[in-house]
């Protein structure tokens, strides 16, 4: 079991038992780990202790993050997780042409591979113009060429772990501040929502209503939610930073524990164990 799998199991348990405020001993017993090892692992991976994570689960905390205040990422009073956390990326976004979409990727050459990342196995696919897909998947032994070929049946799909590996390295926080061009398939409205998402930074949460206003469609929060859910590039288009106006985290295409893990690494306060 990977560290992420252990953290994801811990997050699920804490979510399910938040009202009971489980102790470190109860959590470690559930995971079959020693309390000392679990505390160290959780803190190293997420930047917070299990107890601090329980505090982050409150609606009041989430709602406070939505306030128009200086970003938590630069707030000394809040602090951040370790330097190994995912850094912000400078991302440019280009839409595929209608012809490329209608033609199932005809004329495109797509390099792809599956990599183990900080958040579990991920399928990464790239055209010559940029990343066209970044999906977290169930298992690392799936066939990357087959998965991408099903999405773009007319494209030339090649296995190239060396090219896609640079993206996986960035997800591990080992590649500084890379500049990633994206080459994605989406409607004009979806593209506008994804561009608005790219304006958020680590430590900043937004809401569906706020994204709707930024996209020029005030009042269309439901449509924005659908566009957020259709995001083809995990993490780099940071849809994990979107929560409901009530402060509830809402859903996530790649699983709520993964969304919470990402936010932990961006928002988690430092402090005593």
Can you offer a commentary on this structure?
The chain is of the alpha/beta class. It has a domain at 3-82 and 252-267: Arc Repressor Mutant, subunit A (Orthogonal Bundle). It contains 12 helices and 8 strands. The protein has helices at residues 3-16, 24-31, 35-46, 50-56, 59-65, 98-102, 144-151, 161-171, 188-197, 208-214, 221-229, 256-267; strands at residues 90-95, 109-117, 120-127, 130-136, 156-159, 179-184, 206-207, 242-243. A 4-stranded mixed sheet has the order 4-3-2-5. Helix 1 (3-16) packs across helix 12. The chain is globular. It starts with a helix and ends in a 6-residue tail after the last helix. Residues 68-89 and 269-273 have low confidence and may be disordered.
Q: What's the quick description here?
A:
By secondary structure, the chain is an alpha/beta fold. 40% of the residues lie in helices and 16% in strands. It has a domain at 3-82 and 252-267: Orthogonal Bundle (Arc Repressor Mutant, subunit A), CATH 1.10.10.
Q: Span from first to last CA? A: 25 Å
**What is the total tally of β strands?**
8
The SSE string, one letter per element, is HHHHHEHEEEHEHEHEHHEH
Q: Unreliable runs, pLDDT <50, ≥5 residues?
A: 68-89, 269-273
Order of strands across the biggest sheet?
A: 4-3-2-5
Number of helices: 12
Structural class: alpha/beta
CATH topology of the domain at 3-82 and 252-267: Arc Repressor Mutant, subunit A
* Overall pLDDT metric: 79
Anisotropy-based shape:
globular
What is the C-level CATH assignment of the domain at 3-82 and 252-267?
A: Mainly Alpha
Biggest beta-sheet profile: 4 strands, mixed
Specify the helix fraction band.
40-55%
Provide the CATH architecture of the domain at 3-82 and 252-267.
Answer: Orthogonal Bundle
